[in-house]
Amino acid sequence: MLLDDQRTIAHFDMDSFFVSVECKKDNSLKGKPLLVGGRSDRAVVAACSYEARKFGIHSAMPMKVALRLCPHAIIRGGDMEEYSKHSREVTEIIAGSAPLYEKSSIDEFYLDLTGMDKYFGSLKWTSELRQKIMKQTSLPVSLGMASNKMVSKVATNEAKPNGQLSIPFGQEKIFLAPMAIEKIPMVGKETAAQLKRRGVETVRTLSEIPIGLLEAWMGRNGIALWKKANGIDESPVVPYHEQKSISTENTFGSDTIDMEFLHCELVRMTEKIGFELRSQNKLTGCVTVKIRYSDFETVTRQMSIPYTASDHILLEKVKELFNRLYDRRLLVRLIGVRFSHLVSGNYQISLFDDTQEMISLYQAIDSIKSQYGWQYLMRGSSKAAKFEEKLMPYQKDKNELIMKKRYPGV
Question: In which domain of life is the source organism classified (predicted)?
Fold first, then answer.
């Protein structure tokens, strides 16, 4: 009998996704210590194979440290376009079968199968879907199933590599109890160290601490930790098609054909929503640019891109789209930029060829923007755009000069 609060949630995780794609491209890499990331000493490890992990290597580790631990490791620079392509292939397979799914990152999915046991065996159905994904993509997939998202994710981690594990309803707390506290999602080094100083090392111990005491220690995080330790998670599976886009547009006070100004405005707008993207811990897989001309004709163009949230990559794509769209004989009334096909993820995975300094720079910039507002730290060109916008009432004469210079016969 299905209880009102009994759910069935499956979690799919593409094992060592970037590494698996590299091994698919080059079979000789299988079973070897493989690092995906930049090749310079200042680069970081974006992903590593299970064979490399045996040497103590992990993602986000400086590449020079990783090579010191495993000098014979093989390095691949990373191909975000290829990873994005495979992520979309997996998404299409799941979308064609699952009644309700959430794409929580480039390589992770939650499926809500509540009530399916009335018609099918949920575990059998999900196992068959896992086999289908592996057969069609030639990539390994681990599967966890439980009554909520948090426990299903932990089950997936325990099933790795390339396995599956189902936790029966009512057994969530028993399953989690013997584990180290670090196994609970969102318990990082700092939280773990804080708990261990108080003698809390296992999930069982954490679950037995009164919720009021944990709240006194850690505020709201203490309440969330107590729930997780007791196998409680009410968070819903959010349908992937409901993922919202992030966009911005600007209607100018005076129509313009000034390319320098328009490019500066594109920089400003891209930086603005790029910061929003990173603030929400999202990556975008599609960029759209919109132009409205003085005759009110509106045109848009979009392109699918490798998942990213890095301004320098997004700016390149936005400018490319704008240059394809722009009709130089018409004045522009409005331009807009939109990022869609959003997935959760850390923008650092896009920085395969960048150094720790580049990653640190992004983090420092976003920290300042978070404290004082995104507009307080922008590229110089975008500052110029805001200044020129104030001069828009005087733009008409400039537009006429530009038109006469560009099209002397018109």
Answer: Bacteria
Is 311 labelled as part of a ligand binding site?
no
Distances (CA, A) of 228 to 107, 160, 347, 377: 23, 21, 27, 38
- Identify the CATH homologous superfamily for domain 1-169: Reverse transcriptase/Diguanylate cyclase domain (3.30.70.270)
Q: For residue 98, what are its two tokens?
A: 């699952």
Of the candidates 108, 172, 271, 388, the residue annotated as catalytic is 108
The structure tokens listed for 263 are 């490019």
Entry pTM: 0.74
Confirm or deny that 13 is annotated as ligand binding.
yes
Is 108 labeled as catalytic in the residue annotation? yes
Q: Which CATH superfamily is domain 171-237 in?
A: 5' to 3' exonuclease, C-terminal subdomain (1.10.150.20)
Cα atoms in the Cβ-side hemisphere of radius 13 Å centred on 251:
3
Average pLDDT of the chain to the nearest whole number: 85
pLDDT in tens, 331-355: 999 999 999 988 887 644 444 545 5
